[in-house]
Write a structure and sequence with these properties.
By secondary structure, the chain is α+β, with helices and mostly antiparallel strands. The protein has 3 domains: 68 residues; 160 residues, Cathepsin B, Chain A (Alpha-Beta Complex); 122 residues, no CATH class. 54% of the residues lie in helices and 12% in strands. It has 12 helices and 9 strands. Strands 1, 3, 4, 5, 6, 7 and 8 form a 7-stranded antiparallel sheet that branches. Strands 2-9 form a two-stranded antiparallel ribbon. Strand 5 and strand 6 form a beta hairpin. Helix 1 packs antiparallel against helix 2 and helix 10 runs antiparallel to helix 11. The longest helix has 47 residues. 30% of the residues are buried.
Amino acid sequence: MQLSWTFRIVKRIKQLRTTGVPFELSGAAGHIVVLLTLIVLGGLLFPFGRLIGSALAAETQIAKTEKMLKKKGLDGVKPVRGDSTFIGTLHPTLKAAEADWSIPRLTGTFGHAFSFSMKIGDGAVWQQANIDWWLLWDMITDIGYEFQEFQIVRNQKQPAPTPEELQNIKDQTWEKVRASIDRGIPAIAWQPMTVAQRDSGVSAYGWASLVGYDETENTYTVRHQHYTTEYTVPYDQFGSTDPVGWYCVMVLGEKKPLNRMALEIKSLQHAIAFAHGTRFDLKDAPYAVDAIGFAAYELWKQALERGDVDVGFTEHAAWILWEMREHAAAYLREITDHFPEASSRALSDAATFYDAEIKAVVKLVNICKGHERKHETFTTSIKN
């Protein structure tokens, strides 16, 4: 319609030229034709311009969508605060799989609730070490789930893996972790930080949760219970921040039958072994300690009496012991209904005993808190 209208105007102007229209009018008519032509062509091109713009916008949106599809994170999934980084990351993993495990039950099952270790000398002790990265393997197969483990240790007596082998296992891990996150379940990783990140202040020691991934950047998103700033790490660039170069990632697998009674009995047997110092042979422990259980209490008492440990260490050790024994009491009360009456009563009595121990530990914590100079040893007046 617009084109035919323009052609009629052009035809009329030609007629005017043949009939001797003045030059000025003829020139003006020419300008009008050009103007009208531009208007008409503009009207025709404008829809095409809009169409092209829409296509470009759609292409941009597709690119954004593709990028989003290559990136995923689990909102609201984060490690639980506590001294054990293993329990802190295992709990949200099981919770994401809708498994019914409380923190006290996990600490009772793996042994943290009943453990206590001590060293001779400066007294510095990582209380959870021998459970968090050694004894856990004794129990993790019994909690009702399969676990896929991807592990490499580079700095031990056996030959180190080749670069190709190392890359291969990290590529396999990358695939399985992404699939797990797509199912809504985080993975568990040992110190997922590069050496450069560690040296720059990222203190994600122990276990951490892998809660997201970015296929464009080839990175995991990491959340740690003590280093509380979320960060990303290249999927194949960690595993070199501890002395043995341990790379370890665990992915929760399929659910399997759980014999709860057998598991509780095994856990209680381990609790007794912790108390008597027989849960493991001291010379086999990857993290060296001088005593566990009752013997550790005695060693600690002697160190306090000699003034060999300072107030700050004692306060820290007491805080950890307080946390562990609270879990012990709660765990025993949680499992009482699964036992016959006589056993249930004995478990309740044991929980009450832990309540009394907690009161004594809290008293020690308060004594330490009231002492301003944390690096001093205990004086006779404080000990009294």
